[in-house]
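Box S2. Input/output pair 1.
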Amino acid sequence: MKKTLLILFLFSLNIAFVQGKSVKTHTFELSKTEFLLDGKPFQIISGEMHFARIPKEYWKQRIQMAKAMGCNTIATYVFWNYHEVEEGKFDFKTWNRDLAGFIKLVQDEGMWFILRPGPYVCAEWDFGGLPSYLLKIPDIKIRCMDPRYMKAADRYIKEIADIAKPLQITNGGPILMLQVENEYGSYGNDRIYMQTLAQIWKNYGINIPFYTSDGPTPYMLEAGTLPGCAVGLDSGSDQGCFDVASKMAPDVPTFSGETYPGWLTHWGEQWAKTDTTSLLKEVKFLMDNRKSINFYVIHGGTNFGFTAGANSGGKGYEPDLTSYDYDAPINEQGQATPKYYALRKLIGSYLPKKVKLPAIPQPIKTVELPNIQMQIFSSVWNNLPVAIHAVQPTTFEANDQNQGFMLYKTTLIGHKSGNLKVTEIHDYATVFLNGKYIGKLDRREGISTIKLPASDVKNPVLEILVEGMGHINFAQEMIDRKGITDRVTLNGMTLMNWEMYKLPMNEQYITSLKSTEKASEKQGLFFNGKFTLQDVADTYIDMSNYQKGIVWVNGHNLGRYWNIGPQTRLYCPACWLKTGENEVLVFDQHQTEAKPIN
């Protein structure tokens, strides 16, 4: 009896025990029209940022920046393929993969948390967060009840649930809600799939409210919402959007799941800039009507390495930039922008009298590098692995490779010059005949054919060095394998018997590079240079003197650059620099002359 009374007493005080410590717990529920925190109406003002796009050393500063702008909540996507790089092997510990650590930092700042784990997320991230090993299955169907996809998704959900369970609001943690899938009404209509995902989360111990997020149209909401789940609108910009949702889901609250203070940019475009006046009008409507809001994104960060995705929205293939600055209120390096100050002023005007927003954190320190003198270090041609033989070319994924490059090589028999066509080149290639550069192929520009000149070589050798850029992350073209995805023909004749060389440009490959004593004139060169720092701070690497490739600083992959712009500088965080000597390594697909980096 005494034990029962003690349990009731603790329950009445809303106390839970976490790792031997007592913490006050709260309740979070859905009414028909509002979110209820401890039984009272609660307006979520959320800023979204993605921990995988931010150096872990700066997580706290970015969270504090959001809080100082007026946010009481942080939302984040979880990128499945960032945590399961190899099938069945998960990493939630190293560097900025520490999901639990990120959530706890949010709680330490006295803020709430919204978890958006997918399994599909979009986010302009490679393959929308899905793992590329799925593409090794020739007939795979994604985002549906394909048992092979669901088996992998179940495994991933269990991993996330194990992390999220103790951090739910029901257990004294900050997680208020979990999103099921993402913008599913823009993709498919498998209601069983959506219901199954929700049930899997419940089976693994997730007992907080769920929500879905879709565009504010009847067909998207009908296909993407679930009974009993709150409705996020992408975006909820006016009363008409909310009216559409309330007709579809009258018994749950609706909020603006993605209010866009900025927008994404692809290679070859002008930087996206959004109108601050219309943004402030939208936010004022939401604040006046006590509608909850999630700014997508309050801070974008960086697509380090090969994490940038691509779109296919009517213009063909549209690869995303390395920078995910997004014209967001907090810029790529974590600094406040004029848009930030305008939103802070507006949100702050709704606070009770004598309540003030926290002070804005100090900007991150920066350093200007001296000009870095570069030299030719090596050549991809001198660092080829053992060849894989195939009758016809196969994709990266078929050979257990995600991105980077692959060299396809064959000897020409029969036709030896003329019209060369690569059917479905994914995504960019440089073409060589007998070691001489002939030209490029570019999926983005729809260039898949090239003229091979006549040669006096008896058995001409054709080489096609293919770069796989971001896997498409949205809509109906997401089955996007890399490399030569179909066939190569010369004057209509299918070319057979290929040697293929995997060049993943990963850490193992880069550290194994052998230097080249004699400079090569054949495109596909590595350049390196050194610079010395007395003190470390954030900086940007200006690649204006180079054409198209990848940059590493002290072994860390900063991402891609491309002279078609608009991005010319790559963000390098201080945590990847060191006092004393530092090294820059560049792989460029076209450059044959070493030039300084500014």
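Box S3. Input/output pair 2.
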Amino acid sequence: MERLASWVMLQWGWKRALLAIAAGAIGNLALAPVGFFAAFFVSFTLLTWLMDGTASNPESGWRGKLRASFVLGWLFGFGYFVGGLWWIGNALLVEADQFAWALPLAILGLPAFLALYYGLALALARLLWSEGMGRIAALAAAFAVIEWLRSWLLTGFPWNAIGYGAMPFPIMMQSVHFAGLFGVTAGAVFVFAAPALLGTRKGMWPGLAIAVALFAAHVGYGYVRLSEPLPQPDPKDPVIRLVQPVIDQAKKMDDKEKSSVFEAHLALTAAKIPGDDRKPRIIVWPETSIPFILTDNQDALTRIADVLDDDQILIAGAVREEDTGSLPRYYNSIVVIDGRGNIIGAADKVHLVPFGEYVPLEDTLLNVGLQGVAALPGGFSSAATHRLLELPGGLRFYPLICYEAIFPDEISSEADNAIAFLNVTNDGWFGNSPGPYQHFQQARVRAVETGLPLIRDANNGISALINNRGEIISGLALNAHGVVQSTLGSQQTRKWEKTDRNLHFWLIVFAMSAFAAFSRIGFKSRTN
């Protein structure tokens, strides 16, 4: 290991750049759909040794080392984000005649931008870089803070945060309920970078011992949580049916196919499930599943009433129009329709997709011909805040439309009054790629993090009912056409609230930063 570490540290020029990009790309094996978390051991061990190489270069001054660290982080991030987000380009091929020109921006431009965050992470870590496990703590604290920053700065995009690589299945998800996504990220980076100590020896045994203890606590906490018995289910819990129609995105966008798309959803709503004669009380359709403006189409509401019984409820994704007296406003919404065809509730999307549902700096960019991929003319409008969907009988769901499920800090206190998250999405834009799997994992982790079960319905999958331990109660695989139904079942008692998780996260960052700072001071005193 010492020979390998020395070889990595001494690489320079294009070889060093290629090694950094490869280290980032390898990390994608830890994410869904592969979920091989050990891949991050390779990524962060190589990254640590590459950082050692920038720190030990005697010819570069302080600014030179900061610059070299930033470039190294950017290269690592570029490899990571290209490898993890290339599938976004599939959305541009749905209407290739209009958007194929933007493929380089999606496949390379977005990763190049997101890689700036990891450049900042390594520059920040460089400020406290020393030797031994102090540098591992600096790396962990820096990545945790920067991932937190990435979740909200410039509207935020915390997709594939490093912490997800440490949570491939439920036993390894439970720690997120204690520390939150970014607290888990801090611990994960420390553990994943710890093998670098084998190559430099300094601080090896205590560093490896702490890493082993953190990993054991991570898995052990999961084992304890999953071992706790669940309360007995309530026989009065409503049966929830998820409709997964698997309709090609091009067909959904074809005006001539609107009627057939609508009827396909209705057919699945009324379909019988062999071996399950339970009558669903709640039926869920995916995002933008209703291809009409409902307030302009009474016939569509009548057809829904024809299929539903009086005591059934349909929750469906739809575009909602609001008359403002001039140009109408459009919202990506969830509507609630009762068995008589009446709209009895709605909730609008709060966090819209930039360049998908709206165009930032619209006046300027529309003049040069840039428009949103999925937006209506003028783009979608966003709601000011999340509002609960209230159903007859006192049931309340916290709505999350599409990728709103990936933003942990945007879930408001209203979630405390809900019985479950309701996440409707349409991942059909991204085809048979890692995208839908990654999206599903992040939504699943949100259920564990908050302690709130999840109802997730997607056009082409992955649709599932998930308890608040991240366990799938019932679900449909990607591109599996059909329906699935179940109750939410009994749930585990929540132990921690959002304020607790935030506190635990910052305490973890403070402890790691303080240790790194003391190590840095000791290192400086020994070298002077």
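Caption for Box S3: The first helix runs from residue 2 to 10. The longest strand covers residues 313-322.
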